[in-house]
């Protein structure tokens, strides 16, 4: 029995990310579809930016191999971009705010800049935040849960249950990719479940994404544009993105736009 297109593409994405290199003939047998069908599927994945097609198959693009690397590697990539984003986020969080913070390295950077603020309460599943900022001024609470050693995050039913018991002012989250007319993507299902719950229990969602995340997808979509209130990035996005953000009434912040936002809201 063959899979429907969506399920087959989801499964195919997982195979490519795991095996890094695939052949049309083998995929045709595995999915019980024609080789022409597999070629069309691979064309779709190439348009997504996930793979590069080769003679008789495809290979995972080099930049997408990093999706499965751990927190330490992620924390060392695009460092300057993350710092710019973190500075903006730290400047717009109001007094007495309550936050959900996911386990991304960009969110960690922002919280580090707020470390001397004793008026902010943070509930997080990030092990680096819990270990590095436990002596800071921030009032930090843990979701609890099972330790994912690769992502350095707490996941599972305990973490999800804890999150469901709270409602916060802001959700700080980052992603692996943003796709026009679709939303935000990440690479691990366990982590996206946590992100989705946080967003559902927050008053406003602040998406933190540097310019390399635009026009990219990853394994799992976890957030639509309707759920994003503020998007913080390191440079002005392309015009088509500015139009989309205006359409969804998402406030866009980047270094040149930050001052106007602070003057308008009165934050400092």
UniProtKB/TrEMBL annotation:
Coiled coil: none
UniProt KW Transcription regulation keyword: yes
Sequence ranges assigned to domain HTH deoR-type in this UniProt record: 5-60
Keyword Kinase carried by entry: no
Highest taxon in the source lineage: Bacteria
Keywords attached to this entry: DNA-binding, Transcription, Transcription regulation
InterPro entries per UniProt: Carb_Metab_HTH_regulators (IPR050313), DeoR-like_C (IPR014036), DeoR_HTH (IPR001034), NagB/RpiA_transferase-like (IPR037171), Tscrpt_reg_HTH_DeoR_CS (IPR018356), WH-like_DNA-bd_sf (IPR036388), WH_DNA-bd_sf (IPR036390)
Pfam families assigned to the protein according to its UniProt record, in alphabetical order: DeoRC (PF00455), HTH_DeoR (PF08220)
MF-aspect GO terms: DNA binding; DNA-binding transcription factor activity
Protein name: HTH deoR-type domain-containing protein
Source organism (scientific name): Enterocloster bolteae (strain ATCC BAA-613 / DSM 15670 / CCUG 46953 / JCM 12243 / WAL 16351) (Clostridium bolteae)
């Amino acid at each position: 029995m063959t899979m429907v297109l969506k399920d087959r593409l989801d499964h195919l994405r997982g195979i490519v990310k795991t095996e890094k290199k695939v052949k049309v003939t083998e995929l045709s047998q595995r999915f019980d579809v024609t080789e022409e069908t597999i070629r069309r599927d691979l064309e779709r994945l190439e348009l997504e930016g996930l793979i590069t097609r080769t003679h008789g198959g495809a290979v995972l693009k080099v930049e997408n191999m990093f999706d499965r690397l751990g927190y330490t590697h992620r924390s060392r990539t695009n460092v300057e971009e993350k710092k710019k984003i973190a500075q903006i986020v730290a400047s717009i969080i109001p007094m007495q705010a309550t936050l959900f913070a996911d386990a991304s390295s960009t969110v960690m950077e922002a919280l580090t800049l707020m470390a001397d603020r004793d008026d902010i309460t943070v509930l997080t599943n990030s092990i680096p935040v819990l270990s590095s900022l436990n002596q800071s001024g921030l009032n930090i609470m843990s979701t609890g849960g099972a330790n994912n050693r690769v992502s350095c995050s707490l996941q599972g039913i305990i973490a999800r249950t804890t999150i469901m018991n709270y409602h916060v002012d802001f959700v700080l989250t980052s992603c692996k990719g943003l796709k026009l007319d679709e939303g935000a993507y990440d690479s691990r299902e366990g982590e996206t479940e946590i992100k989705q719950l946080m967003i559902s229990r927050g008053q406003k969602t602040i998406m933190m994404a540097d310019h390399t995340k635009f026009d990219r997808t990853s394994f799992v979509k976890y957030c639509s544009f309707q759920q994003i209130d503020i998007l913080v990035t390191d440079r002005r996005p392309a015009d088509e993105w500015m139009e989309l953000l205006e359409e969804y009434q998402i406030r866009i912040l980047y270094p040149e736009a930050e001052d106007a936002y602070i003057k308008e809201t009165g934050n400092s």
